[in-house]
Hints:
By secondary structure, the chain is α/β, with parallel strands linked by helices. Among the domains are: 340-411, Luciferase, domain 3 (Roll); 414-514, 2-Layer Sandwich (GMP Synthetase, Chain A, domain 3). The protein contains 18 helices and 29 strands. The strands form seven sheets. A nine-stranded mixed β-sheet has the order 2-1-12-11-13-14-15-16-17, sandwiched between helices. A six-stranded parallel β-sheet has the order 7-6-5-3-4-8, sandwiched between helices. The longest helix is centred in the first third of the chain and has 17 residues, at 29-45. The chain is globular and about 70 Å long. 45% of the residues are buried. Keywords: Ligase.
Amino acid sequence: MGSLGFWRLAQADPGWIAAVDPDGTEHTAGELLARANRLVHGLRALGVEKGDGICGLVPNGVDGLVLYLAALQAGWYYTPVNWHLTGPEIGYIVADSEAKAFFVHERYAVEGARGAEESGIDPRRRFAFGEVAGFRPCGELVDGQPDTLPDDRSNGATMHYTSGTTGRPKGVRRTLGGIDPDDSAELMSFLLGLFGIPPGRPAGREPQAHLVTSPNYHTAVTQFGGTSLQMGHTLVYMDKWEAEDCLRVIEKYGITNTHMVPTHFKRLLALPEETRKRYDVSSMKWAIHAAAPCPVPIKKQMLDWWGDCVWEYYAATEGGGTIASPQEWREHPGTVGKAWPISELLIVDDAGEPVPAGRDGTIYMKMAGTEFEYKGDREKTEKNRLKDFFTVGDIGRLTEDGFLFLSDRKSDMIISGGANIYPAEIENEIVLHPKVADVAVFGIPDEEWGEQIKAVVEPAAGTAPGPELAAEILASLEGRLARMKWPRSIDFIEVMPREPNGKLLKRKLRDPYWKDHQRAI
Length: 521
């Protein structure tokens, strides 16, 4: 094909700074290439074959990037694991993905080790960046291995886990084409091409730098960062995102593109005017955001400050989506855009029939040339499909000229700070408490995070509701549920509203919290 693809670019120009760790350490393309190659040789010696998977519980930075680059040229699936999860939650993903190797950074040693035990993965296939009890140092896997390109290379893929409304997350697994990894990378570049983002290599092109602002276990973060690297951009990683630090990094590295969520915008705009003026952010040409609806006033303020570089899109891990340029958004405030050229949208009623423009319905999407299934769950894969369209359960409407507006979420999924949180999983843990008769969990408005998690509990007979019971319920979640999933507050109710068939009338509980808000999402 052409001249893109990390491995091609790294061989042609090994001295290019391909990645910068959060602590400022710079890594050349040649160094990353050698590390990824050694990892492939080491894992192949361990018996990892095409179509197998590996998992990484690693912070933002080059350790995870090397795992990604190794998998993508060896025909493996790479699953980056959410580092907020507890041991049992991590163990489930490692086991379900059938990982043939599990890499843990010492920062997450405790829960990573619990996860490894829970998964039952062979101790000889557990590797540590740093020191993790019961794990082999990564050096044992890669030391002495050649840094040359491995033979029989073919494209791999990431397999991210996306939660279902019934609790346990599912891996979104795509069919591998068995094609050259660089050719596959070139195909990936369509994503950035939708926004008009150019390659930064080969030499002679305008340099490009991509800022990684969010945890790398999110699908979009991996996709945008990975694709930027494959197009010759320098990846600059942030560890813990802070507003002023973000401005400092944009100025220091001349960041040209990034992927953000509306919570980032809100925090940037909360900085004092003099702090904002201190930094030159004029290098930014594409500040792309998604993952949660952006309040119209916040988006307007960002456009006024950063200029017409704020782009929006709507998509799902499963594939397909929309895009809104700054100009289109100004003309249609609140839209998430029009369908990608290789994607189609369909809005249907509860009977699966298309609805006219302007009317709300369930949003279905499809993307040309991509097939996926939820790993190990053919039933869920089929259930979410309508012919060759799929849905994640969102509700929205299309204008006559094809602009999509989101209205609500059928699935009750909570989006807090850009992270997807699924109520059923939280309800399943809280209801185990002996003093809880019934529970409902849903999102309520939060100015900073978009939504915060609210639990409504019906106490067991003879149990007094109040702050002490709330504290006791929360304490019982320790070690069983990631703290990011804990309810921010618990309210009590005498009797939970349910239909005679047992179906929870969650909307009855939820609506009072949203009544003064224009958008119930």
